Amino acid sequence: MRRDGGAGAFRIPAALFAFLVMLIGLAAAASNPPGTRDLDRVLKDLETYSQTIWDSAKVPGMAYAVVQGSEIVYARGFGKRSQDASAGPVDEHTLFEIGSCTKAFNAAVLGTVVDEGKVAWMDKVQSHLPDFKMFDPWVTKDFLVADLMAQRSGMPEYSTDVMSMIGFGKEDIMRATRLVEPVTSFRSSFAYQNNLHLWAAELVEKKTGLAWEEAVKQRLLDPLGMSESTFDFAAYDANPNHCLGHVPQSDGSLWTIPPDWPYRGWLSVYAPAGGLCSNLSDMTRWVALHLGNGSYDGTVILKPETLQAIWAPRIYMGAGSEGVVSYATGWAFQSSPQTPYYWHNGETVGMHSIVAIYPQCNLGLVVLTNASENKIPECMAQRLRELLFDSEQHQCPKPGMADLSASRGGACEAAAAQEKAAAIPLGKLAGTYVNPAFGKAVVKKEGSGLTLSLGPAKRLGTLSALGSNQFSFQWPEWPGKTSKVVFTTDASGNVTKLTFPEFFEVRGGDFKRQNP
Questions:
Q1: For the chain, N or C: smaller number of CB within 10 Å?
Q2: Is 501 helix (H, G, I), strand (E, B) or coil?
Q3: pTM surpassing 0.85?
Q4: In a domain, 27, yes or no
Q5: By residue range, what is the domain housing residue 190?
């Protein structure tokens, strides 16, 4: 066949030629999909952006990686493992708390049980866990396995989370779900929860015969080669290459969380919702599993249909210029104008992270930081998408979902911080008060002031007067963390209860006074 187009050359009809050109274009797009062209340039621009945003934030250390398929195309650490001058540098093997990014592991390990046919997403929870109860009997009866991690329970957000901070265990928290009065109809709106992940983990334990952490290790971490990841804080602390967490203070400084911080155990109680510690080296394998549609290094860990069920949107979260966001199962789904992507962030007291998956681009991102309340992870996930598609740079989003209700409420309002003497004599406020979920609050008169001991752990803090019968509770060994406490009397002037408005999800936060 001649190639010069001269006499006797084979001529392709115009319509057929146009069709062939279209096929060639589709094939080229398939081999080089949108968003992966000129990846080197994208990575360079993302590094410049990351350096700028990290420099502007008061975050001692950061690490991020980009994965293409099963290959790490970028991985780097920035800064130090703590703000201490002698702290070592962050690298790909530096351990961080990944917080609620753990929820995707909970979804995946339950997915392996689904793959075995031992449970189905549409099964009623009570058919497997008879002790499961919500506030409304009809919700209890209709609650599906698919609802456990879909954030559409009807409960107020972060319900009962603080129980872990005051000494309660996971069994106590699970029982308390039946005490939480709903604020919306079941499956009608998004409200972020950690407590229902404990029930999902209970289901995994019942069907595998393993402790949840061991099930995750055997079914996910070991097959992926995530040998440096751990749920054990003793192992975390023993690893010399680990971060300390940092919390911003009102004066602009950072407080470094000490290793022996008494509240640290909340991560172990809530391990299925936020307790994994990991690093770039391991988390890039986790990303590769999702880019591999449930397979890693030739091994099927999750069936493709199970992964798609995990990623399926379950409840509307919100919308903006970047598209509609829905919550799936341990993931959020973002329907951006150019390409949909999946993400989940994690916020512990002291660290903040994100994992984002861009399936159509065959790319994934992991960002880990060792300070809470920063926007770096969310900003980088958004900026990567913008760089991939040469789209307009939008305002950086606020940090998304957190792990812990203890950040809810925060310090008492400054407008109410008027140091006035309480209308009731302080001695009459002393006593024992009880809430069915949060346990005992014991108030004592100490010298000229009051102290309050809270929960089984007896968190002992001072009460400072704000106004008539209103006080600020200073959480011990937690700089900047306060909660409002209000005392109420009956018509005879007898003190009948104290109220933590921050704990409103159970009995309005009321602690009823026991008989003297």
A1: N
A2: helix
A3: yes
A4: no
A5: 39-407
